[in-house]
Amino acid sequence: MKPTVKNRVATFAIQGFVDGTNAPFFIAMDDVRYTHNLKVDMVLISLKKVVYFNVNGLDILTEALLAFRKKMKVTVGYCDLDKKKYEMILRFNQNDISFSLYQTYEIAMLFARTNKNNTQKKLLIWNEEPSQRNAIAIDLFERGHNPIVAQSLEDFATKRAKKELFDAIIEHTYLGFSSNKIATRVTGNAIIYTIKGFLDAEIFNMFDLSYHSNCLNVDFKLFIFDAVQVVAMNVHALNFFSKLTSSAAEYNAVICIAGMEFVKTPVAYKNELEDAGVLFYESLGAVLKNKELLKELTAQSSTSNQNKRNINKVLVNNLPNFIDATVSSFEMMTNAKAQKKSAAVTLLNIPPNIELYASSIGFYGNIDGIIMLVFPKSVALKASQLLLGEDNPPDEMVLDTIAEFVNIVGGKVKSILSDNENLDVDITLPRTYDNIDAFRALAGEKKGVQVDFLLGSEHFTFFLTR
Amino acid sequence: MVTPQELQSFIESIPPKPQILQETLRYVEQGELAKAANTASQDMVLAAYLRAFVNRPQFFFQKEVKELGQIFGILGTTGAKELLYHYMLHLFMPNKWELFALNAQRFDELQTMLSGYWRRIIDAEKITQPSIIAIISLLPASIIVTEMLFASHKKEVELLKNTKNIDYNTILERLIGVNLFDLAKTIGQTWEMEPKSLELLVCVSGKESCDDATLLKMARYMHLLFFYVLSKPDYIKSGLNDFLEFMPEFVEPIYESFTKIVEQK
C-alpha cells in the first residue's frame, strides 16, 4: 500500500490483523521505493484500524520504519495508539525503542518538522518516565506551543479533569530518535526555523535547503531564525547565514535572527551579517507580537519586486497539461463537468466583491512555475465534501482541504509532465488564502495565463505564472 | 470520477438469474436435490463449475466425483445453495481485473475461504436460517462492484488516496450517496435473494443501523471475517486490505469469540 502524504508526513494506514506472515506485504518493495522518493520529514504507520498484532508482525513493520529512517533521515514511528497498543509496543521492545509513538495522528502532527499550524496550543503532557515527559515538553515548546507537564499520575488526573483548559492532552506518546533537521513552522506569512546549541558546519546538513527554496518560490518573504537557545556560532555558520541572505535577496525576502546573544560569538559576526542584510531582534516574540513591525517587514520585502519572472514558452507549451490536471481534479472532487469560458495572457484579473478562496502551489525542476486557483466559497465547499464528508465544515477545515486539493492538482501535474513530456518536477507545499487581497499581492504584477471556467453555475479561475 | 450515469449503467448491467440456475435453486430450496442435479446438468458451464469446486483438494475426495446427483448430495441443501450463489457471482465477475490484482481463481479462493470460516461461525452460533448461511457468497460482490465502478478511474483514486486515507465505499457514498453494500443488495434483489439476507448484507459495513439483534451480531462477525481474510498476504498483495474501512469498534463485542472460532483446528 502507498502512504498518504500530508504536510510532509507520510502515513501508512493498515487495517485488520498483523502477524509475521502478512506484515511484509503491507509495505511492499514498490511502496518502499515510492516512499523513498517522497519529500517528507516523517514516516508513520497508523495502527488505528488494526485489531490484532503480534511481536513478529510488529518487528517486521518496525524494520521497515527503521529502514526509512536510515535511508531518508526522517523521524519514524507509530500513531493512533490506545493504551493497550502503546503498552504492548513498549513491552515487545522491552521499553527500549528508538522510534516514536504518538497517541493520535493529530498529536504526531505537532511533532512534524514542518508545522503549518500557526496557533500556539496549550498542551497537557503525561508520561510515566520523567525524561520522556520533559523531552516531549521541550520539543513542543521549541515548536511554539505551551506545554504543561503533569508531575505525577494524581497531578495528571487533576489537570485532566479540567480538559477544557487544554487544546490537547498528550499521553501514550514516546519520543524516539527524531531527525536532527531544524524544526520549521509557518506563522502567517513568516517561516520560523528553530536553531539551538553550537552552530557550526553541521548546520548545512541540518537545514532543509530544498524546503527553504520552495518557500522562496511560492513567495514567502519573511524567514525568522529563533536563536534563543543558540550558545555560539563559528565561521561556518556565519558563512551559512551569508549564503542564505544572498539567495533571499534574489527574491526580496528578509532573513531575521531573533534572541541571539553575542556573548560567546564575536560581535563582528553580527555586524557582518547586518551588513549582508540580516535583521536582528531581541526575541521571537518581539517580531511576532509587533504587528506593525511584521507589516513593515512584509511590505519591505514585497516592494520593488525585482523577481518578475513572466510566463515563458515552455510553460505555454505545457499549458494543456496543467489545464488537464486542474480540470480533471476539479471534476473529480465536485463530480461536475467544467467548461472553459475564456483564456488570455494577462495580469491576474479577479472580479471584486465576491467571497472567494484561493490557493497556490509551485513546481520546480526541469520547468518551474506557480499554479494559482481562485474559486467561490461554494465551490470550495463542494470540493471539500468528498474529503471531509461534512456539509458545513468550519472555514479552517475548508482551507485545510483546499490545500489537500491543490496538492492533488500538483501531484497530477507532476505525474502528467513525467508521463507525457518526460519532465521531472517537484511540487512545493500548497498555500491557501481566505483573504483575496493577500492573494492578489502574491500574483502582483506577474503576467500569466488566466483561464476561466464554469463549473455547473459557478466560476473558477486558473492562473499559471512564474 | 464515478457519476450517477455510470452507476445507472452498472445497475442495468447486472444480469438476471439464468433460467436453469433459477430452477436449480428452486429445487434446492424445496429439498429436491435429485431434480436440482438433473436441471443443473442442462447447463454445461454450471455443471463444470460444480464438479471443479467439489473436487478441490480441501474436500479430500480420493476419486474424482463426476455425478451431479452425488455432488448435490455431498453439499446438502445449504451447501448447494451457497455454491449456486458462488456461481452467480462468478458469472458477474469482470473478465479482466484492473483495479485489484485478482483473477477468477484467486477470487474463487476468497469466496471459498470466506465460506469455510463462515460455516464455523454459523455452527458455533447455532444459526439455522438458510438465508444467513448462504449470504456469505454475496459478500465479495462488494469487491466486484468496486472493480467495475472504479477501474476506469484508477489514477484519480490513486491521487485522492495519496492525499487522504479514504476508502472506495466512502468515496462512492460522498459522490453519489450510495454505498457498496447497497449495490451488493441491488445485485441480490435482481437475483431474487431473500430480503432478510440482504438486510444482513447492508449491515456489514458497520455504518448502518440494524434493529434485529441476530442480524447485527452476524453482521459484526461478517465484517471481522472479511478483514480477517483480507489480511491474508495474497489479498494484501491484491490491494484489497484498504478497499473498505475496517471498523474495529463495530466488531469489539464479538472479537474474542471470533478468534476462538477461527483458531479452532
Explain what this protein looks like in three dimensions.
The complex is a heterodimer of chains A (466) and B (265). Chain A is of the alpha/beta class and 466 residues long. Chain A has 4 domains: 1-109, STAS domain (Transcription Regulator spoIIAA, 2-Layer Sandwich), CATH 3.30.750.24; 116-179; 185-304, Transcription Regulator spoIIAA (2-Layer Sandwich), CATH 3.30.750.24; 309-465, Chemotaxis protein chec, CATH 3.40.1550. Helices cover 41% and strands 28% of the residues of chain A. Chain A is globular and about 65 Å long. The model of chain B has no long low-confidence stretch (mean pLDDT 89). Chain B has one domain (4-263): Hypothetical protein af1432 (Orthogonal Bundle), CATH 1.10.3210. Chain B starts with a helix and ends with a helix. Chain B has helices spanning 4-12, 19-29, 33-40, 44-54, 68-92, 104-124, 130-134, 141-150, 154-163, 168-176, 180-190, 195-203, 213-230, 233-237, 248-251, 255-263. Helix content of chain B is 66%, strand content 0%. Chain B has 16 helices and no strands. With 265 residues, chain B is mainly α. Classes of the chains: A alpha/beta (466), B mainly alpha (265). The interface between A and B is large, with 41 and 39 residues.
